[in-house]
Amino acid sequence: MLNEGDKVPNFCLDGIDEKGDEKRFCLEDLLKNGKDIILYFYPKDDTPGCTTEACDFRDNFNILSDKVLVVGVSPDSIESHKKFKEKYNLNFILLSDKDKEVMKMFGAYGKKKMYGKETEGVIRSTFLISKDGTIKKAWRNVKAKGHVAQIIKYLENEK
What we know:
Layout: E1 12-16, E2 22-26, H1 27-30, E3 36-41, H2 48-59, H3 61-64, E4 68-74, H4 78-88, E5 93-96, H5 101-106, E6 109-114, E7 117-122, E8 125-129, E9 135-139, H6 147-158
Parallel strand pairs: 3-4, 4-5
Antiparallel strand pairs: 1-2, 1-5, 3-8, 6-7, 8-9
C-alpha cells in the first residue's frame, strides 16, 4: 500500500476527460500537465455520498484547477461515468478501475466497516500527488461531505 512520500508507479486506466471523451489515461501523461494531481477514489457513480463529493469538486473547480488536476476513480464502467458526468455536469477526469488494481495499490480497496458489518469494497480516499509523482498527502476513509473543503484548506496552507 502506497503512503505519503512514496513514488507512485505509473498506471494506465480507461476513462473520460472533462469533455466526456473516452481516452486511456496514464499517470506519467497526467503528470506532464505541470500541476499536482488530486486522485480521489469513490465507491459508485450517482449514489448520495459520491454525488455530494463529485459535486463539491465540480463547484470548487475554479479554486482547485489553478493548483491541481482533479481525477476521480471508481470501479464503474465508462458508460456509467458518462451518465454521471452528464447528469451532474462534472468538469474533471473520471477513470474506470474495474479490476480495482489501482485502488488496491493505494489501499483504497479492502475491508471496511459499514453499519457495523465488515464488508469489502472501495474505501473513500484521496491522494495529493506532486508533479514528480510522489504522494504529498493521503486522506483515507474520508467522509464525502466537507472533504473538498479539507483539501482546499490544505492546499492554501501548503504555499
